[in-house]
Amino acid sequence: MAIPIQNLAQFPLLESLPQDVLLHLSSEMVERKFARREIVISKEQHSHELGFLAEGRLQGVDFTVDGRGVGLYFVDSGDFFGELSVVDGLRPAEHVIAAARSTAVFLSSKQARALLFDNTLIAQRVLTRLAARVREVTAQRTLLGLPNPFQRLCVQLLQLARPGSDGSLCADPAPTHQELAIMINASRETVTRAFQTLALHEAIRRDGSSLRLLRPDFLSAIGNGRQEPPKN
Fold this sequence. Notes:
By secondary structure, this protein is of the alpha+beta class. The protein contains eight helices and twelve strands. The strands form three sheets. Strands 1-8-3-6 form a four-stranded antiparallel beta sheet. It has a four-stranded antiparallel beta sheet with strand order 2-7-4-5. The chain has a four-stranded antiparallel beta sheet with strand order 9-10-12-11.
């Protein structure tokens, strides 16, 4: 079944495309729904598709040699994913799983490559995303080199946060403690205790689905080692 063309308007990657191109894409795309923690893209798969997240949230995840999960990045509604394999034709570099119940639409690798290589605007947007991914992975590797999980958590929160409508930093939607734990290589219990301490020091606050960073300078000072993590 074709994807309604008006549904494609929510995806920034496809903005400004001619109507006839959007009509063609809508006829080629397929929609799939995923339960929470279900695998959306596997590292082992040979077929490649460019995905667009219509609803929900995804997380890029890999595993260490001893089987521990490592969270790499999030994909939020309106965003695209799977672009690396579309570009180079190789297997995915990581798994992509559903962090919440999600709906995504997919375009085959052949159609996605044609879209990418025939449209300079799309190519520019995808290249910008790939560059951002490289920077994210580099920052994540630096973060994982920090000796203290409390430090790693503070840095991770600062990396995930974006300026809100009032200028304050917030992560929206707020990641779960388990999602943060696999991103900073710590246990969920460690993250929960750290959250309780940061809330006690009025450094963070839950606000509905958002997590507000009330004292970013305090978090930064802990993250870069200028200040010891608080004990309670």
